[in-house]
Amino acid sequence: MISWNPALRGRHLRTMSDFSDEEMMELVDLALALKARKDAGVRGDLLRRRNIALIFEKSSTRTRNSCVVAAQDEGGNAQYLGGHDTHFGHKESVKDSARVLGRLYDGILFRGYKQDTVEQLAKWSGVPVWNGLTDESHPTQILADLMTLRQAFGDIRGKKLVYMGDGRNNVANSLMMGCAKAGVNYVNCTPGELLPDPALVARAAEIAARHGATVAVESDPAAAVRGANALYTDVWVSMGEEAKTAERLRLLRPYQVNMDLCRATGNLGGELVFLHCLPAFHDDQTEVSKDTGAQEVSDDVFEAPFSRVFDEAENRMHTIKALFVSAIGDPAAG
Ligand code: CP
Ligand code: NVA
């Protein structure tokens, strides 16, 4: 029997701050329970007759398909509304579209550019709104990352995670808050040109301190990773920033996660895990990386036994399911 905290009903996920530290970990635990039930071959009906709109301005493999499978697994329906498929934001304001879609759907997941669009949807739709990535944040990703750390370590409090790369992107911002709320020691290792917002760092440090954990920003890779239990990286150029490609390749080359960096943790062969939200440029097999080869992570690290990237990708589905179920699910439907 799957059960969850009734206080999670109707809740938005605009940023990591929308849930208390305890509620965030309850969502991760709910995702673990939903995964265990699915692995046991038991299918539920928790989202029976629930309709979810997926508004996507940017591309997606994991987030989009996780939403569809999560809804279908529990008897619900997720409708993909991409690009110019609808009038959303083009011929109709976000506010008006929110009020229309909120009359039709039980929840809305949005992926796109502006954080303000998520805020507007949450304000005007009248239904729970989940942020599936904006320029500023990527909170659904971080629930999957925390779930993957829980699978690797059990109790994750006091572990050390080092994020390498573009220190001011959506994933880095949300990961910093997620680690702080989970009591994971977080280091953002990035060059001076790509530092995170100091106000966000200060807020995360305050939250981490509640759990006896720390948040730090460091520019020297070898110093940053010493003692790390987890190394995490993301693409050097996020969606919408393609004009910055040459500059980012120049700035971030020294921040690649490779075997030398893994050795510098002192935990290689121990309990080190590697995480990446994906997609990743770890070889020359993509259109983007055919001329550069590996960028943010070397191929041997990406393919190593301690790389948990595909568990992490799968966990996108279980954690998104936990969000849907807790916000709009029917606890009596099993
Ligand atoms: N990690 C992630 O958000 O992947 P997609 O861009 O494929 O959704
Ligand atoms: N920072 C990346 C994350 C992709 C999942 C981007 O925004 O493109």
Annotation keywords:
334 residues, binds norvaline, 13% strand, Rossmann fold, 5-stranded parallel beta sheet, alpha/beta, binds phosphoric acid mono(formamide)ester, 2 domains
Please describe what this structure looks like.
By secondary structure, the chain is an alpha/beta fold. The chain folds into two domains: 6-137 and 316-333, Rossmann fold (3-Layer(aba) Sandwich); 141-313, 3-Layer(aba) Sandwich (Rossmann fold), CATH 3.40.50. 41% of the residues lie in helices and 13% in strands. It has twelve helices and nine strands. The chain has helices at 21-39, 62-73, 94-104, 115-124, 139-153, 170-182, 198-210, 221-225, 245-252, 259-264, 299-302, 309-328, and strands at 51-56, 77-82, 107-111, 129-131, 160-164, 185-189, 215-218, 230-233, 273-276. The strands form two sheets. It has a five-stranded parallel beta sheet with strand order 7-6-5-8-9. Strands 2-1-3-4 form a four-stranded parallel beta sheet, with helices on both faces. β6 (185-189), α7 and β7 form a beta-alpha-beta unit. The mean pLDDT is 97. Norvaline binds at residues 133, 169-171, 234-235, 238-239, 277.
